[in-house]
Design a protein that fits this description.
By secondary structure, the chain is mainly alpha-helical. The chain has seven helices and no strands. Helix content is 64%, strand content 0%. 30% of the residues are buried.
C-alpha cells in the first residue's frame, strides 16, 4: 500500500486534471475513501474536505454525461455514505440498483445505506452467482 503522502500526491494530481476520464475519477474516489480512514494530522496543508468535494463533483459530471452508469452511481453512493451523507448516498444506491440489479456490491451498498439510515427491514442481498467481479468485490469492496 502506498504511504499517505503518495496517496495525497496522487489524489491532488487527479483532482487537478482539466479533463479527467472515468478511470481517473474512479481512482480519485478510491483514494478519498482510503484517505478518509487515515490520520491526516501530519499533513495540515492537505485539505481533505476540499478534495472530497472535488471528487464528488467529478462523479456528478460523469453522471451528467452518462446518467445510468451503475459503477459511477454505486461508487458515488459509497463515497457519500463514507462521508456521512447518508440520505443522498442511499438515493444513489437506489439508482445504482435500478441500473444494475445483478451486481452484488450494489445490493451490499444499499444494505449498508439502509443500516446507516436506520431503515427497516434492511435491503436483502439476493443470492447472486459468484463471478470475477464478486470475488474482486469480496476482497476489495470498492473494486469493479
Amino acid at each position: 500500500m502506498p504511504d499517505i503522502s503518495q496517496q495525497i500526491d496522487s489524489l491532488q494530481r487527479l483532482c487537478s486534471l482539466s479533463e479527467p476520464n472515468a478511470d481517473d475519477v474512479f481512482n480519485a474516489g478510491r483514494l478519498v475513501m482510503d484517505l478518509g480512514h487515515r490520520d491526516l494530522r501530519a499533513f495540515p496543508r492537505f485539505d481533505f474536505r476540499a478534495a472530497s468535494e472535488k471528487v464528488r463533483r467529478l462523479y456528478r459530471s460523469l453522471l451528467d454525461a452518462q446518467p445510468g452508469d451503475a459503477r459511477c452511481l454505486n461508487d458515488l453512493s459509497a463515497l457519500l455514505l463514507s462521508c456521512g451523507e447518508l440520505k443522498e448516498g442511499r438515493s444513489f444506491a437506489l439508482m445504482a440498483l435500478a441500473a444494475a440489479p445483478g451486481i452484488r456490491t450494489v445490493h451490499e451498498n444499499l444494505r449498508i445505506a439502509d443500516f446507516c439510515c436506520q431503515i427497516s427491514p434492511l435491503h436483502e442481498v439476493p443470492p447472486l452467482a459468484p463471478s470475477e467481479a464478486f470475488l474482486l468485490a469480496y476482497f476489495d469492496p470498492h473494486a469493479h
